[in-house]
Specification:
Aminopeptidase; 16 helices
Length: 512
């Protein structure tokens, strides 16, 4: 049923886009307007200084991070008990956070015989059409000299992903519900103006939202939970009860709403977006769009400005008021979201070679998954030859992270604008004194011909946009028995967590 819902979303998305061409030269325009090209125009939300401070607070819980890392700090050679225990830790953690988790097992021939591998794929909202993918590998290499822990390779990257999901659980859950609510509305109304013929086809193929999803959306409504506000008369007798959802109560009035917007504007980082009035923009529908980072040398960019909000906050979201009781109320800023975009984690198995690195003895999990997704049409039976890989907006691969000696570069021209946002967040967090003291990790240079072999290669060959976070040169403990707990530098890991939190919130348009 979930697959049918996904297909319906993509089909409606395509139909709406084609409908907007007014029937002129549809065939020529088709390749430019289908859903899978949305990644080419997607921009980050832009984060205010106040938002960066809150995200840094959430990311800085090293106690939680260590608790998630400890079960990963064991030898994890494919086929061993340690490997199975680590996979269980990944699955249990993500399922405990209410993500949809798939364990995709497959057999492959290796230099040491047939082995069974299992990729773990966790998706925040499987019904969403597009994904921001963050990935790592969870196996460790065989080392005949002793127990190879692989703290940086890649226990720490896996723990960073778990920490991101756990620390932003509330924000990500809200984002997921908003995506589902938006998709449900599109499917259950005529807002997309689906023709009667298409509607009949959709009914024929049972591409409807399941009753279960409908119930979940009603249970987790985006509106403030209605609370009974008991009013008592002066003589102490019970008065009438009033149902309030925030908007009708005395404290959630226009005056207090205006005060909320004023206080929010005071913390908005870009002075230029405060005028002209956002109210004019909202009424006229003329809010300017965020501009993508231009494709120019990184050294020429004003890195302190790249990730600042480019619009007035009223153009980017709305204020919601919840009345708690007669005297307490709370306004919350709810940003507009990309209604078809979600977050997906991939924990690859079998990245390491069993004997010597080669095209056939390495990247077992990523080669299998890339081929599997490439061969799965999405939506099913579509005429555009689109498949599951087209759903990946951006593939962010983490590897060899955790030591102090790290320097990152932009490796691919088509994702340089997203690397620039990482770089910008590091600079801004540093200016706000939200990072531990150390040299900058993200270098404003591009290295486009490194020849690094990692789990991104099978996806890169199939034209998936790649952002590779791997230090160059590799850490001094790479593939050595010293790649263990003692090699880790937690202030650096803490900085990386804060930057990754900011990048994810920015891409998904999440405000904590």
């Amino acid at each position: 049923m979930l697959l049918k819902t996904n297909a319906c979303v993509a089909l409606l998305y395509t139909f709406a886009a084609l409908h907007c061409t007014n029937g002129h030269d549809n065939n020529n325009k088709r390749s430019r307007i289908l859903w899978y090209n949305a990644k080419n125009t997607h921009t980050g939300l832009g984060l205010s200084n106040g938002t960066l401070q809150e995200l840094s607070r959430l990311a800085s819980d090293l106690t939680q991070f260590r608790a998630l890392l400890t079960p990963l700090m064991v030898t994890r050679v494919v086929g061993t008990q340690g490997h199975s225990n680590v996979r269980k830790h990944l699955v249990d953690t993500m399922e405990g956070l209410n993500w949809d988790v798939e364990q995709l097992a497959f057999d492959a021939r290796t230099p040491v015989g047939h082995k069974t591998f299992t990729n773990v794929v966790a998706t925040l909202d499987p019904s969403a059409t597009r994904r921001l993918v963050i990935a790592c590998h969870y196996d460790s290499k065989i080392d005949t000299r002793g127990d190879f822990i692989g703290a940086t390779d890649s226990a720490v990257p896996c723990a960073m992903m778990l920490h991101l999901a756990a620390a932003l659980h509330s924000q990500l859950s809200t984002h997921s519900l908003k995506v589902s609510h938006t998709l449900h509305s599109q499917l259950s109304t005529h807002s997309l103006k689906v023709s009667h013929t298409l509607h009949s086809q959709l009914n024929t193929h049972s591409l409807k939202v399941s009753h279960t999803l409908h119930s979940q959306l009603n249970t987790h409504s985006l509106k403030c939970v209605k609370r009974r506000i008991l009013k008592k008369s002066l003589n102490g007798k019970e008065g009438r009860e009033k149902e309030g959802n925030g908007g009708n109560s005395r404290k959630c009035n226009k005056k207090n709403r205006k005060k909320f917007w004023k206080s929010l504007l005071a913390t908005w980082s870009d002075e230029s977006v405060r005028e002209p009035s956002a109210r004019y923009y909202r009424r006229k529908g003329n809010c300017p769009g965020n501009s993508p980072v231009p494709s120019e040398p990184l050294a020429n960019l004003n890195l302190s400005q790249v990730t600042r909000p480019q619009q007035n906050p009223k153009c980017l979201g709305r204020a919601k008021c919840c009345q708690v009781n007669q005297s307490k109320y709370k306004f919350t800023y709810i940003p507009d979201v990309q209604s078809d975009l979600t977050l997906q984690f991939i924990f690859f198995d079998g990245e390491e070679a069993f004997r010597r690195w080669s095209n056939t003895d390495s990247l077992y999990g990523s080669r299998n998954l890339a081929a599997r997704l490439h061969n799965q049409p999405y939506p099913p039976n579509n005429e555009d030859n689109t498949h599951e890989l087209h759903r990946m907006d951006l593939f962010v691969l983490l590897d060899l992270l955790g030591t102090r000696d790290v320097s990152f570069y932009s490796f691919f021209p088509n994702t340089q604008q997203w690397y620039a946002r990482m770089l910008s967040f590091e600079r801004r967090l540093g200016e706000l004194q939200l990072l531990n003291s150390r040299p900058n990790m993200f270098i404003d240079e591009a290295l486009h011909k490194t020849g690094i072999q990692d789990d991104h290669i099978p996806f890169l060959k199939r034209d998936v946009p790649i952002l590779h976070l791997i230090p160059v040169p590799f850490p001094s403990v790479w593939h050595k028995l010293t790649d263990n707990e003692r090699a880790l530098h937690y202030p650096t890991i803490d900085n990386l967590n804060r930057i990754l939190f900011a990048f994810t919130a920015d891409y998904l348009n999440i405000v904590p």
